[in-house]
Amino acid sequence: MNPSQPSLEDRRRWLRRLAGLGATGALPLLAPALAAPDPFEGDPFKSHPWPDMRREFLGKDARVQFDDRVKVSGPKFAEDPMNVPISVRTDLRDVEQITVVVDRNPIRKVLDYWPLQALPAISFRFKLEQASPVRAAVRTKDGVWHVGGTWVDSSGGGCTVSGVTRNDGSWVRTLGQVHARMFASSPVGDAAARLRLQVMHPMDTGLVGGIPAFYVNRLSVRDGDDRELARLATFEPVSENPVFSFDFPVPPKGGVRVVGSDNGGNRIQSRVPSP
Question: 231 lies in which domain range?
Fold first, then answer.
């Protein structure tokens, strides 16, 4: 053997060090380098639609992280799949937008909410077609989306069945009416006032034969000086005659004014006095 060349044993030791072999000489797992990418992108629900939903609703290049500080509360089972109560809140600071999506609904986006001068919390009801994760994505000022969610089981059919007022025709008489009240306190910790409002509207999804999509698509809450406090964009899965609750760190000056519209161009407006 040429003394200037490494021995066979030296070569074996070098290869073991290079490959990261243990003392036993077993083959390394090489998991960090060779493991296939996670098809669920870290999703705790391991939902197949999630990766496409993330790109569609949050942005292809958006920074997204799952965050326990985004609290989504709902029933374990939807007894009425056309009226599933959900509340979203977070302790995150500098919240600019809240987006609510449902993985297994035929229409996945439920609403976009911009708190503006309100607290980052909202409660509402929506239609659930089948058992699914219900998610809230909260975008903070730094551009990061923080995602939380809950699983709601359901017997199904919430999005493909017409509502009560559509069936009996009473929606024509009440369309656009607003019932609202301001409360001087709220169950949310930092809130000094809560606005609870209902807008009378059939909120048709367009998934029932012969009935086109017809729904409230914009609401704005303004104070007595016409300063916008909160802005809401709603979509077909929101429940018939929707009810929303908004929380404020201070009581709105001079009460509030609610203005909005539906996708048919019908106007919505109402004034709510201070509590």
Answer: 62-272
